[in-house]
Amino acid sequence: MSRDIERLLAAAADDTDQPLSTDVDDLLVRARRSVRKTRIATVSTAVLTTGVIIAGVATWSANRNESTGPADGPKVTMDAKTGRIVSDEAGAQVQPPPPVSQLSDDNLRNQCKQADQEYVDFLREHGANAFDKGQPLDARWKVVVKAGTGNRVQAMFLSPDQSIVSTCTLMSVGQAQSYERVSTKAEATSGRTPTSAPALRVPDGVREVLVDLDGEAQPRQALLGENGYYSLGFDDSRTSGRLRQVRGYDAEGRKIFEYTRPPLPTAATERPVPDSVTVKTAEPVTPNVVLTKDPLTGNALAPPPPVSPLTDEQITTRCRGVDDIYFSGSSKVQDPRIKAAGPVTKDWQVALKTGTGNKLTAVLISPDKKVYAWCHMLAPTAKGAYDYTRSAVQANGKFADDFSFGMVPDGVAQLVVDLPRQGPTRALISNGYYIWGLTGGNSDIQNVRIRGYDAQGKQVYTAKKDVDADFD
Fold this sequence. Notes:
- It is a single chain.
- This protein is mostly beta strands.
- It has helices spanning 24-28, 105-125, 236-239, 312-328, 336-340, and strands at residues 33-37, 49-50, 77-78, 85-87, 142-149, 152-158, 164-172, 175-183, 208-213, 220-221, 223-224, 230-231, 243-249, 255-260, 349-354, 360-365, 371-377, 386-392, 406-407, 414-419, 423-426, 428-430, 433-435, 445-453, 459-468.
- Residues 1-70 and 187-197 have low confidence and may be disordered.
């Protein structure tokens, strides 16, 4: 998966430093900036690559609390020939809307099918999509808006029963930068406050839409499609989290709708980690006996994944490319330590690296020992499939438990991961971290047993852990 793919994953591209759980709210904020390699064997991965950034559950209903302006409300200035908004009611110049995509509806549906399937599968595995009946994206889904040029397009699809709207942002042919499904039913939130509904749809009667974003002085005019859905185009997946205000105008340019983002929670509500805390890894233990057979069954263990042949400097150089994208698309307020660590440079420690050829999964540790970057790339540059995130150290000196890698427990010399398909597998251990394969995409999260053995081959550790069990 990659929504960034946020994810999706886009937005929604920031991790927190808390353990992954199956709580819907906790799960869905754990988005990664990522682009996922497809597993359709009949199609070249150079042509069809998909990405999903899990963005979150949002709803829309006719009974929202956003304000509706009076019929004689303030007006925008419009171009008489094109109908485009030239300036808003305050006189600010308006950025033009994205063009309607020239790609056909069938073409867009076909390009977004793989991302849709991975999104549905991921949420189903975690029990986080009770509102979504999992209807596959097919010809029955209506394209309500499609905005962009060439192969850089954002398309929105409405399900046959109108219960789900999905958003697919394509960065190239078949390659989704982000993907999400959200409910159109208020009851889907089960009492939760919908947070991003105005980023999808405006009420009936609105004919023009302006969107104000954090960090931009000029409002943007959106492309308004059918059923009140609108888009800012390909760029929307990187800006939706910065949405500050949405304004809607009638056919005569009068403002009849306005939404303003509620104040964000203050840092005072969070328990800060002391600035003196740095990551503490287990002391290395050299095995006297290397396990080749499973101590429980006597059967052969699958070998550990290989150490990547790339040099540390090659890895930091490559990962810097996706690190830059991660920060350029970041929208959620982050732990300040994540940004304070600065960009990835050759001074970052490559603590763990696995892969063959150009395929790579690596864990990088910041010079201040407070932040890790998890970097998964299937090509030499960010133009290929990748998955990426950062997170900061917790108060106990550990990084949050992650389904892509782990931290070696104290006193453990070897680890066995009971993978569901390839069976018990020796983990690759490096600098106090371990990994069980070329993790990335995270489309198949499984809860498995991890077993740890001391230098003499005696079991001294056992625990269950969520792992990415479907390797790229």
